Amino acid sequence: MVETRKVQVTGGSTYTVSIPKTWATENGVSAGSEVEFYPEGDSLFLTPRRGDERTEGTLDIADLSGDELTRAVMTMYVSGFDIIALENSRITNDQRRTIREATQSLVGLEVLEETRDRVVIRDLLDSSELSIHNAVTRMRLISLSMLEDAMTALADLDRDMARDVIQRDDDVDRLWMVVSRIFRATLRTPKAAEELGVPREVCFDYHSSARQLERVADHATKIAHLTLNLEEPVPEEVTDALFDLHEATAQVIDTAMEALFTDDSVEATNLANEAREMVEDIDTEARAIDELLRDLDPARAQLLGLIVDSVSRAADYGGNIAETGLQKAAPTP
Q1: pTM for this structure?
Q2: Which domain-ending residue is among 80, 102, 127?
Q3: DSSP secondary structure of 219-238
Q4: Whole-angstrom Cα distance, residue 84 to residue 260?
Q5: Regarding beta strands 14-16 and 8-10, do their DSSP bridges make them parallel or antiparallel, or are they unpaired?
Q6: pLDDT of 193-213, one tens digit each?
Q7: To 5 degrees, how large is the angle CA 142–CA 143–CA 148?
């Protein structure tokens, strides 16, 4: 329920306003308590001042194992818990192994305490030291390099390079988790956004774009897996066409990311529209490659068709980033 208060003037120059008693009681605010104010545009956020900002979450893992346990740890991490306590009447060796692997796959986590019935994980990173901009920039570099190397591995039938692309997907996933954690923190408290120095709306744009980059990396990984299934080199005509398609796709993603990162709204709009127009041309190129595949045996044609589809989808994800760039550049109501 919305409550309203009248602003009053005390001492001739100080503006004062009362706060709802129910809210104060629920949040432990009483006479003598200190509160913090965070201005954001025409809004002013008020929050109780806490001595220890680190949050602890406890999870019963009695019925969890394998991927379910891994996902549970990742969910607690993304949700913003600084200390994660995993409990069971007796934690099995398999559970301990899964917890360690999950911890190693996430940035900043370390096992702090380990007993018969409890494993405590702690985030050692200071949230003020994290940069959502740097994380997204790193995701951009890795995902684009993965896509390029996946196409090179396909052309050269380089299985070692294909396996390297598959391994690098873990790096992108780690960064995606970091971006998600930062974004959720800015939703939970205005202090997180202030420490980042990035408005919450921009954090949302970065989070949306990071999701698209994570999908680009997934399709680079898919291409690498498909390459491992190839037994014969791809015909040169098809390889050349695929490289042209890849170059156009990489240009879409790069142009879209530049639109996202620039603070010039006119430049951002022009770059974003340029990227969106290139996506339409890529659809035409993809259909032309599909025609070339008709001359191959059905099994190879199907496999290479999946690769064409993955490159095209990567371009679509670049188009989605361009849409986000347009929204970021639009005037704020």
Answers
A1: 0.85
A2: 127
A3: HHHHHHHHHHT--SPPPHHH
A4: 34
A5: antiparallel
A6: 777 788 889 999 999 999 999
A7: 95
